[in-house]
Design goal:
With 122 residues, the protein is mostly helical. It contains three helices and two strands, in the order αββαα. Keywords: Membrane, Signal, Transmembrane, Transmembrane helix.
Length: 122
């Protein structure tokens, strides 16, 4: 019991990362032992995988950025002239905008590279 009390977070971390691998590794053909692609049959190349990964990051990241900006606004309003709280609110807004720039910049760079590669192939 002492082992569980000391290492509960490690056990939780192990199961949170290992269980999805077992769940997603479904066997399509039990007789042949063929493993299904969890991303679908259309995702067979690395650029397609990166596209799906970036689209997923954008779908999750944009609402989080909106919530972070709202939270920063709340910090500014609750500061009420206190210089320490205003500094904290400014820092939070700066880090939120940097995160938004990284998120949208990664999408723009990936789009630019993919359009360039497609243009070279034509």
């Amino acid at each position: 019991m002492a082992f569980l009390n000391k290492n509960w977070y490690r056990i939780l971390l192990f199961f949170s990362f290992s269980v999805p691998f077992y769940a997603l590794a479904a066997v399509c053909d039990p007789a042949g032992g063929k493993i299904c692609n969890p991303l679908g049959e259309t995702t067979t190349t690395i650029p397609q995988f990166i596209k799906i990964l970036l689209e997923g990051a954008l779908k999750v990241g944009i609402p989080l950025i909106a919530l972070a900006v709202i939270y920063c606004g709340f910090l500014f309003v609750s500061a009420m002239g206190n210089s320490e709280k205003l500094t904290k609110a400014k820092d939070a807004l700066l880090y939120t905008l940097i995160g938004a720039a990284i998120l949208l910049g990664s999408w723009a760079i990936a789009k630019l590279i993919s359009n360039t590669v497609v243009g070279l192939g034509a």
